[in-house]
Amino acid sequence: MKLCCAAQLEAVRPRLQVPLISVGCEGWTSNEGSFELQEETNMTRRQPSLERSYDGFMGDRALDLINEHYGEGIDIYSLWAELPDVLNAWWRGFENVPSHPAQLHYAWLNNEDGTPNGLGLNDGIRLATTTAIEQLELNYSKPIALLDVGCGVGGTALQVDLCLQRQKVRDYEIHGISIVADQVKLASRRCRKLGATKSEFLIGDCLHLPYESSYFDGIVAIETFCHIPPEDKLNLLQGCVRVLAQGGRLVILDGYVAREPRTADEEYWHRVFRNGWTLPELITAEEMSNLAIESGFDVENSFEGSSQVGPSVKLIYRRGKYIFMPLLRIYRLLKRLGHDSRLLQRTGVHTPNAEAFLQAGSAQKELAERDMMAYHVHVLRRPMYAAWPLSSQPLGRKL
Ligand SMILES: C[S@@+](CC[C@H](N)C(=O)[O-])C[C@H]1O[C@@H](n2cnc3c(N)ncnc32)[C@H](O)[C@@H]1O
Questions:
Q1: Band (15; pLDDT cuts 50, 70, 90)
Q2: pLDDT level of residue 104 (50, 70, 90 thresholds)
Q3: CA-CA-CA-CA torsion for 293, 298, 304, 305, nearest 10 degrees?
Q4: pLDDT at position 248, please?
Q5: Does 392 reside within a domain?
Q6: How many CB atoms lie within 10 A of CB 43?
């Protein structure tokens, strides 16, 4: 059974059996002029306000930053949809706009060969989820339990839940976990309101998955591992092995470094990018595969999706430059004149992270143009035998 909700998605579904772990991302290049980080943001290279990225083990500071980024910054993310839905969400709130994808990941807008797949932004965002779910190869004739690690505001769960309902699949449950309380509350509210009756969400640290061993038939992690510091990724992978049933798959969609910075500028953009999106040090896709093997997974498939998500990079940049930046300026001007616009606050312009977020969109474009980033899909399978000691206790650090 196919999970695609729209015939349109089915028609453009990329070929998925691409056996490679490689770098290079032609699809991420752009000929547009970039807007100057310094000019647009008042951030000089001599005095960079880079305080939001973090290194090392997740300490309180890192968790606070993520909470701030995704909690207070929820409104900024409502920008990631087709424009009528963006306006609607700002006006009426995420949960009142069913057509808003409410997913915080890149859209798949190109085919593997870099040609446009013809989808609009909303469907491009949903295609990423469809791709992940299809790679799980679930058997829908049996009861199914799915986990979305780092579930954001629940858009993935909602898409899958409604789709399974339409496909008349009865025996399934979908669980999502995020460390950000505001996201989980919004995800629960939105799913309840929009009819995703079998989706449940928990506030928790995915390094300490609060689920029974061998419970899930499939796990997706869409752009969540990037938030986990390198030394903790193995821990998260081991946690996923533990909660997956034998033969179950974990599908990871994420961004990676394709090469190290070579110049001071490249180093700078890297830091601005990590800073604005509150990221620890990133690893390569190949390092991810090695960690997966170390944790006990079989790497069933690993392929690059840089071409597919390439247009997202340009779109994020353009939305920042032509929509968010003008709004930020208007908001600040009004504030200087003594008016703290509640309406504009709904766009996230007032959040502490707004400016750094904007800078990251620009820095990301610079990195992509230099082939410094790559996007990958990893399909990992828990072997049918359990040859390693499976802890009955969740692995990882307590929240
Ligand atoms: C880029 S967002 C992706 C959200 C969602 N997967 C989607 O595609 O819409 C990253 C998500 O990872 C979550 N996250 C980051 N670190 C986490 C942790 N230690 N435990 C649980 N969730 C975490 C964030 O709260 C956020 O929901």
A1: very low
A2: very high
A3: -110
A4: 97
A5: no
A6: 18
Q: Which of 126, 203, 227 to mutate to test the pocket of ligand 1 (most atoms within 8 A of CB)?
A: 227
Looking up residue 343, the CATH number of its domain turns out to be: 3.40.50.150
Per-residue pLDDT at 142 exceeds 90: yes
Residue 370 vs residue 4, higher pLDDT: 370
What range does the domain containing 16 cover? 7-29+53-381
Q: Does some domain include residue 245?
A: yes
Considering the domain boundaries, does residue 1 fall inside one? no
For ligand 1, atom 12, name the residue with the nearest CA.
150
Residue whose CA is at the smallest distance from ligand 1 atom 17: 179
With the most atoms of ligand 1 within 8 angstroms of its CB, the residue from 70, 156, 175, 178 to mutate is 178
Ligand 1, residues at Cβ distance < 6 Å:
66, 70, 103-105, 150-152, 155-156, 177-180, 183, 205-207, 222-224, 227
* 16 CA from centroid of ligand 1 (Å): 24
Whole-model pTM: value is: 0.86
Q: What is the domain count for the chain?
A: 1
Task: Tell the residue nearest (CA) to atom 27 of ligand 1.
Answer: 152
